Amino acid sequence: MTAYTATVTVRLKHGVLDPEAETTKQALQRLGFELSALRSADHYEVDLEADDTAAAEQRADEMAERLLANPTIHDYDVSVVEADDAQ
Amino acid sequence: MTAYTATVTVRLKHGVLDPEAETTKQALQRLGFELSALRSADHYEVDLEADDTAAAEQRADEMAERLLANPTIHDYDVSVVEADDAQ
User: Fold this and answer.
1) pLDDT averaged over every residue in chain B
2) Which of B20, B46, B70 to mutate to test the interface with A (most CBs of A within 10 A)?
3) CATH code linked to domain B2-85
4) Can you name one GO molecular function term for this protein (chains A, B) (predicted)?
């Protein structure tokens, strides 16, 4: 078993309203920053032990599917690195 | 001016309690998943126009410093890609 860190990023699907991101964007513009769009996402870093990268990725994918993301409104992506390489 | 997408990831500093992540971890364990730790973070994708990558990175860094992160409890990192390469 090797230690891996899986990163799951959960984004709202295109077209789903994100009032929090809109508010953040307007606050930045009021501070004088120029930007054309801002999207927010949830980011999870999961430490887990698995036999290989594929197994770790599959487990993280199931976690996203069952709990971290709501498939009706969210897209997600998963990336896995060995724990020593993780930040 | 070129279009860039800056990704700002805002994490709680080591040692700052994160009850939301702890709850998520326990919920995953109750579902039968094996994991040793879970950290959550906020993830912002900012579309902006800038002269070059360095200018885009500096502006995103200032946004994190002034609004997106609270330096007392957060660490953040910034990465910038040209918008065509972004997801």
Assistant:
1) 94
2) B46
3) 3.30.1280.10
4) ATP binding
